[in-house]
Structure formats: C-alpha cells, structure tokens
Write a structure and sequence with these properties.
about 200 residues, two-stranded antiparallel sheet, about 40% helix, DNA binding, Homeodomain-like_sf
C-alpha cells in the first residue's frame, strides 16, 4: 500500500489559499487541494479559519529574504521548495530566545579622569552658593491605576481601556541632603490606618 507524502503548508501558503478563494469564489476546494497537493478536508479547514490567516503578515525584510531563497531554489532546480518561519519559531523556543524591547541609547561610559575634571569644574561653579541652596531633582510619573499588560490565565481575557490616571512625583534633595516639608496635607483618615514618616 502506497502512503501519500505528508505536505505541510506554511502560514503564507494558507493565506494564499484564502486569498485565491476570496478573489475567485468559483474555485472549488478540490481544485485548490490539487494545486497545493493536499486533501480537500485540509483546504476546507483552512478556509474555516480564514480570518486567522488573513491577519498574518510578514515584514518587507522577511519577504525579501523569502524571495531570495525562492530564487536560489529555482537556480538549483529544487521543485518542492517551500519557505516558512516554522523552523525559526522552534529554534527560538528550544534555546529560550525571546524578543526584548531595547532601552534608549546608553551613553558611553566616561573615563575616571574626565569624571574628576567634571567634579572640579562643578565645585568651582557652585562655590558662591550655600549648601542648602544647591538642589538636584528629577520627576517621574506613577500610573497607579494601570493594570499589567500581560497576565497568566487559562483562557484569553477580553481587553479594556487602559486607565491613565497618574501621579507626578518630584524627588529632590539639597547638598545638605535635607528636604523640609513643602506642604502637609490633612485628611480625615483614621490614624490606625496611616503612618507618616519624615
């Protein structure tokens, strides 16, 4: 008994099947199955999930790479060549490779000599001022109502509008490292639930 060779379609091939059917509805599933050398049931299942396959997009860079690969396959007379990112996904998973967002460009580390020179220049610049009049401060925002963007769950969770309420915090200290209270708020809160420290 002859067994038929298993054909694995890439995501882009599945998308092309959906696009062909959308452009020409008169194409039967049997014709599409023959063209891609798969079973009719495979084409039927792909078309049932057409919304999923239409959402798949490949970046222009990847498309160029894929077309380059296809060009070499034709040069070497490889007829059954199909390109996909399937192996890459498996490789990333196997070796724990993930995509990270790069932080803003870090400045090059200054030399010890340049730090000493900068400190001397700053000390000369600040000599006319009293220590309590020299301040360093920076502000930051605290989005205190915002939920995390990633969650662990058994099923998908519907999203909702992100809460953007925030508190601006300005942290400062003078050269004496003492900061007086600028403004003290008084709230009607039971003292058992609040402890303020200076």
């Amino acid at each position: 008994m002859l067994t038929r060779k298993r054909v694995i379609l890439s995501a882009m091939q599945k998308r092309k099947i959906c696009e062909k059917k959308k452009k020409n509805p008169s194409f039967s599933n049997v014709e599409l199955a023959q063209e891609y050398k798969v079973e009719k049931s495979t084409v039927t299942n792909i078309l049932k999930e057409k919304e999923r396959w239409f959402t798949i997009s490949v970046s222009q860079e990847n498309i160029k790479k894929f077309h380059g690969s296809n060009h070499f396959a034709k040069q070497f007379s490889i007829e059954d060549f199909y390109y996909s990112e399937g192996w890459l996904g498996g490789f990333k998973k196997r070796y724990g490779l993930r995509q990270f967002k790069k932080q803003s460009e870090a400045a090059s580390t200054p030399s010890a000599e340049s730090i000493k020179n900068d400190c001397r220049a700053l000390q000369q610049l600040l000599t006319p001022y009293n220590s309590e009049d020299i301040w360093n401060g920076d502000e930051t925002g605290l989005f205190w109502k915002m939920e995390p963007s990633r969650v662990l769950a058994c099923t998908s969770i519907s999203g909702h509008k992100k809460e953007k309420s925030r508190v601006m915090i300005f942290c400062a200290a003078n050269a004496l490292q003492k900061l007086g209270v600028l403004r003290r708020h008084r709230f009607d809160i039971d003292s058992r639930y609040s402890r303020y420290r200076n």
